[in-house]
Amino acid sequence: MSAPTTATGWHPDTRRRAGFLGIFLVALGVRVTYALAAAPNILPISDAGGYRLLGQHLAEGLGYIRPYDMARADIVRPTAEFPPGFPGLLGMFHAIGLRSVPAQRLGLAVLGALAVVGVVMLARRWLPERGALLLGLVAAVHPALFAPESALLAESLFLWLVVLVLLAVVRFRESPTPERAALVGLLGGAATLVRSEGLVLAVVLVLPLLVTAPPRRIRVGAGVAVVVSALLLPGAWAVRNLTTFEEPVLVSNNLGSVLAGANCDRTYDSDLIGFWYISEDCFDGFRQEALEAADESVVAGDLRDDGLSYLRDHLDELPKVATVRVLRTFQLYEPEQQGRLATFEGRRLLTERITGWILWATLPLAIAGAVHLARRRRWVDLWLLVAPVAVVVAVAAATYGNPRFRIAAEVPLLILAAIGVHAGVVALRRRHRTVPGE
Q: Quick one: which of 283, 393, 264 has its CA closest to 328?
């Protein structure tokens, strides 16, 4: 028997598909408009510029090589400074003819619009249909979700994969099978090749579900499936790195430059506390003379040791610095300065300001949503939405503060905020119905 039509005469499935299509078109329109009319310039030497060159070299069959060594000095050196996921996507764009910055922005705009549809699908697990669609409209116009696309930053792809991981975890919760566990692991492994915390996020999300999933044979089978599938993609990449570099490298060498630039006098005791800095006293780049004497893994290892050495010598200052790092990531410390710093990564100051305003409005509502779930002892729901925020906090505290590192927490915070609003509306309606004389 087919499902009944609604009061509007629409079949529920038709209405749902129409809602998804409408959200997709709004999200795509916002992203295309921003990409064509307001997107920032891509700086010649930047993460975005490096991603583009890495993708171009892959598409041209040159391999995964240091982008600026090739572009500026015609020197071919293998690299693992960045995980290969996002450059690989840009390489695919390049191979099919999307070679200019505007063309690649449009390609990412389509991906971002699909991610917004994924947000609606995810939100339907906690909100009524109309509430999920309203949240989708918010996500469609939220700069935090579309700004990374036009800046050609890896967070644009990571957002999409985080949404897919969350959807896969929710499906596993509904029906815990080894196949669904394997999908969680595979997506987590793919996310790891974009940002290194991707695998941690997937494991943190699915682990409580593995522990509680009945019966025991399902738990064991699902546990094996998630581990094996999670290691497939990162494992293949690790084999390449272990057979290419002198020092062991699993996902990337990026930790060396991160720790060196985040642990120095400039980032512990100045106006840039909690941030990252490039200078002779902090991270001074991968110098050609150092790369000529040793491969990239050795140089990155030296940088990592420098950063850890400084950290050990200043452990008493670390709690303060780590706190500021987290506050910077959530735009709660010197937000105007943080916005100006973002312009050096090719992001617009006004966009950063708007993102901060939306975040400040979202946080108290998200806390209300979390309290609502806790009061009703919906602990698994609370875990699925709070765990990504906790991972972001941990990464920021251990590295440095940057709002774009918040990307894995953006969607869970929006959903928590929507839960808080919905709970408040329901409570007001109930109160109104119980007021005498109304």
A: 393
The rounded distance, in Å, linking the Cα atoms of 391 and 319 is 17
Dig out the tokens for 324 from the structure.
């500021």
What b-and-e string marks burial along 233-252, b requiring 16 or more CB atoms within 10 Å of the CB?
Answer: bbeebbeebeebbebebebb
Enter the tokens of residue 170.
Answer: 């929710």
Give how far Cα 2 sits from Cα of 69, 130, 245, 373, Å.
62, 22, 60, 34
Quick one: CA torsion of 98, 104, 106, 111, rounded to 10 degrees? Answer: 110
Distance of alpha carbon 235 from the chain centroid: 21
Q: Which two tokens stand for residue 104?
A: 């690649």
Residue by residue, DSSP assigns 71-101 as HHH----B--SS-SHHHHHHHHHHHTT--SH
Q: What secondary structure letter does DSSP report for 65?
A: B
Report the distance separating Cα 50 and Cα 43, nearest Å: 10
> Quick one: tokens of 245?
């570099």
Q: Quick one: tokens of 198?
A: 């991707």
How far is Cα 274 from Cα 320, in angstroms, rounded to an integer? 9
From the first residue on, what is the mean pLDDT of each consecutive set of 10 residues in the chain (438 residues)?
51 81 96 89 86 96 93 89 96 96 95 96 94 96 94 95 96 91 95 93 88 77 91 96 94 93 95 93 86 90 95 96 98 95 87 95 97 95 96 96 96 97 89 62
This model's pTM is above 0.90: yes
Q: Domain residue spans in the chain?
A: 11-153, 317-429
Chain centroid, CA 320 distance in Å: 25
